[in-house]
Design brief:
Blueprint lengths: L1 H35 L9 E14 L5 E8 L2 E6 L6 E5 H7 L5 E7 L8 E12 L4 E8 L9 H5 L8 E2 L2 E5 L4 E5 L12 E11 L2 E6 L3 H12 L9 E3 L5
Antiparallel strand pairs: 1-2, 1-3, 1-8, 1-9, 2-7, 3-4, 5-6, 5-9, 6-7, 10-11, 10-13, 11-12
């Protein structure tokens, strides 16, 4: 029996290693395909949309703002850019529970306001949602020089400020900040492989949203090899895009 158990353990280990190899190969093929088509090797990320009947935008003592949205549509809509065909809804409570990243770039558009004070670009964080009153609250700060491809239209229309009290409103959220990719190699007791800076994007799995690396693994593996040597890009590594890193 001991010999049988060893064979079972070895077989499970080989299957696990094969699954990692297949996943990595899929990422590599995706990168090669994107390169041949002269496109980026970006993973399909999404844009979030939230709507409310009215709200307030109040400046705090620390210079940040409290953004409060009332009578909120009780779900977050999301969609991807073409050619991907990703679209769906996430219940607002699920969205708030999943918001583990530091912040998202977002536009706040006021649908009934004057043209010269109807759009601001914000970094929103720490969402709180009251399901009974359908009230959604964020901590927010104004972004003076915003750069986010997903919000290019809203950025072109951005104003310096908006009214403290407003009517119908829409939030459109793009990326979720920056993070780190841990370059990895097996048994790195000397800490040879460090971390590289990465951009983080919002992804959707079923009805759940998350913040993860914008590119496929092989993109970061190549950067790790370039920065710290070949062996540092030989294993999958790991993305850190959450608030806990």
């Amino acid at each position: 029996m001991p010999g049988y158990k060893r064979y079972v353990a070895l077989a499970m280990l080989l299957l696990f290693a094969a699954s990692i190899a297949v996943s990595t190969q899929n990422d590599t093929n995706t990168c090669k395909s994107a390169s041949l088509e002269n496109k980026s090797a970006g993973r399909p990320s999404i844009t979030l949309v939230q709507e409310a009947a009215n709200g307030t935008f109040v400046k705090n003592a620390d210079g940040n703002y409290t953004l409060t949205l009332y009578n909120v549509v009780p779900y977050t809509m999301y969609y991807s850019d073409p050619p991907e065909q990703i679209a769906g809804f996430s219940p607002m409570e699920s969205f708030v529970a999943a918001f583990k990243w530091r912040y998202s770039n977002a536009s706040l558009s006021l649908l009934d306001a004057d043209e010269n004070e109807d759009t601001v670009i914000l970094a929103i964080s720490s969402p709180r949602y009251d399901n009974q009153t359908r009230t959604l609250t964020y901590t927010a700060r104004l972004i003076e020089d915003p750069k986010d491809d997903r919000l290019s239209y809203q950025i072109s229309r951005a104003d310096a400020s908006i009214s403290e009290n407003f009517g119908r409103a829409k939030i459109t959220a793009g990326g979720c900040g920056t993070g780190k990719w841990a370059c990895g190699k097996p048994y790195d007791t000397m800490d040879t492989c460090k971390r590289i800076d990465i951009c983080c994007c919002i992804m959707a799995i079923d009805e759940n949203v998350m913040c993860d690396s914008c590119e496929y693994d092989c993109v970061y593996q190549a950067k790790c090899r370039e920065a710290y040597g070949g062996i540092c890009g030989d294993s999958r590594g790991f993305a850190y895009c959450s608030i806990f890193t």
